[in-house]
Every structure is written in structure tokens, then in C-alpha cells.
Specification:
The chain is built from 8 helices and 13 strands. It is of the alpha/beta class. The protein has a single domain (about 10-255), classed as Ribonuclease Z/Hydroxyacylglutathione hydrolase-like (Metallo-beta-lactamase, Chain A). The strands form 3 sheets. A 7-stranded mixed beta sheet has the order 1-2-3-4-5-6-7. Strand 3 and strand 4 (about 40) form a beta hairpin.
């Protein structure tokens, strides 16, 4: 498995699963879920992703009025980037677990196990990755208030009707999304196939630089595995198409970093 593209020009990959498109920008993935009643966006990357999102909608023959919801797997700054714009400019509701409310308002105040400063020193190969993220606005993300809250197991009344798979550890309210009709699970940062902090490829939990509780994150892999989804769509890195069970097995074997 190769490292994802870090190009400032984003990549729209259509139909990574039935009815789901992936928008990759600066090593972060957003997903556009198409339903008969419109579009649900999952995660919001960076501020500089905002105009890229609009071009992606045009490429899909869609417009802003088709966007009915933004669902956050969690509220870290690299998944919150254009959330405030889509909420204020387009009037789109932003959904998340209640334990993400504080981070959503304060994107740089979040629990993590290890110093974020040590990773670029120990792994200089990730410096270009972090620099690309910074150029995309990683240091200038504005918080958002007034979230629509969901609970574990909820089937959200938004296009695609995703089911919430509570998967805490990366953050305390982290939630993946299972789309049974698409045979896909959007894992957010509960399981990634590229770790921006270490440069590791293949299924992992995210490094302690950005994870609140790695032991809990490893336990939460069981909730992802229970979806039995074939297609795994992570918050960072390419899709994993040989099933969630094999992805979870690999992430457990890799362990924390």
C-alpha cells in the first residue's frame, strides 16, 4: 500500500463504494454520500478544502442546495476545517456525538497521549506531510457551535441513512458510520490506512500524538469489526477493500505508536 497523495490539488475518487465518493485533500479524506434526498458530507478536512468541495459537487452535477448534512466522525481540526463555512454559508446542520462539542468549539484543545512535537523529530519523513496540512489551513481552523447530536446506534435521518458506530479512543466521542446498503464503514480516525504522524501505511490506530486513549482505541476496533463491512473508508489513507475483519486484524497487530 502506498502513501496517499499530498498534492494541494485534491483528488475526487468517484464511487469508492456504491453511492459514496472520496475527496482527498492534504492527506485527509472527506466523503460525499449520495442519497435520493441529497448529499451528506462526512468530515470537513481543512479551510482550503472549501472551494475544492464546491468544485467536487459540480463534478458530481450537484450544487450546495443538495447538501443536507455534515456528519463529523470527530471534531479534530483536520476534520473540522470547513464545518463553520458549510453551516453558516449554506445553513447545513453539523452532526456529531455530544462528547465532541467542546473540541468542535475549540479545535486545538483535545486530549492526546504523547507530545506532538516529538514525531517530526523522530520521523523527519513526515515533515512534508505536516507542512502540506499546514498550507491547507491546519493552523487556522475556526470552531463551530450548535451541533446536532447523535447517540451510539442511531440511524441518522440524513441522505444515506448511516448508522452510528460508537468507537471512542481517538477522541472520547469518536463515531464511525456504517452504510449497510453500500457494504461500507467510514472509520474516521478509529482506523486509518495512513498515519500522518508516523508515515505508516496500512491499517493502524492513529499515533498517540493525536489519540486520547490508545488502549480504548484498540478496544473500539471490535465495534468496527461487528459491522462486517467489505469496504473500509478511513479518515486518512486509501480505501481498504478486503473487509473490516482483515483491517482490524492488521491494526491490532500494529498496535499503538
Amino acid at each position: 500500500m502506498t502513501r496517499p497523495s499530498g498534492r494541494s490539488s485534491a483528488r475526487l475518487t468517484r464511487r469508492v463504494a456504491p453511492g459514496i465518493h472520496r475527496l482527498e485533500h492534504a492527506y485527509v479524506n472527506c466523503y460525499l454520500i449520495e442519497g435520493s434526498d441529497g448529499i451528506t458530507i462526512v468530515d470537513a478536512a481543512f479551510p482550503a478544502t472549501w472551494p475544492i468541495l464546491q468544485r467536487a459537487l459540480l463534478a458530481l452535477n450537484r450544487q450546495p442546495s443538495d447538501v443536507k448534512a455534515l456528519v463529523l466522525t470527530h471534531a479534530h481540526f483536520d476534520h473540522l476545517g470547513f464545518a463553520r463555512r458549510v453551516h453558516e454559508d449554506w445553513g447545513v446542520p453539523v452532526w456529531a456525538h455530544g462528547k465532541e462539542e467542546y473540541i468542535a468549539e475549540h479545535p486545538y484543545r483535545y486530549a492526546h497521549e504523547r507530545s506532538r512535537l516529538l514525531y517530526p523529530i523522530r520521523r523527519p519523513s513526515v515533515v512534508p506531510v505536516l507542512a502540506t496540512m499546514a498550507r491547507a489551513g491546519a493552523l487556522n481552523v475556526r470552531g463551530v457551535r450548535g451541533l446536532h447530536l447523535f447517540e451510539p446506534g442511531d440511524v441518522l435521518d440524513v441522505p444515506g441513512k448511516p448508522r452510528v458506530v460508537f468507537s471512542p479512543g481517538h477522541t472520547f466521542g469518536h463515531s464511525a458510520l456504517h452504510l449497510e446498503a453500500s457494504d461500507a464503514v467510514l472509520t474516521g480516525d478509529a482506523l486509518v490506512t495512513f498515519d500522518p504522524y508516523t508515515g505508516a501505511v496500512g491499517p493502524h490506530i492513529v499515533a498517540g500524538a493525536a489519540t486520547a486513549d490508545s488502549a480504548q482505541a484498540l478496544r473500539s476496533l471490535g465495534a468496527l469489526e461487528e459491522t462486517n463491512a467489505t469496504i473500509v473508508l478511513p479518515g486518512h489513507g486509501p480505501a481498504w477493500t478486503t473487509g473490516i475483519a482483515s483491517a482490524v486484524s492488521a491494526a491490532r497487530a500494529a498496535g499503538p505508536s
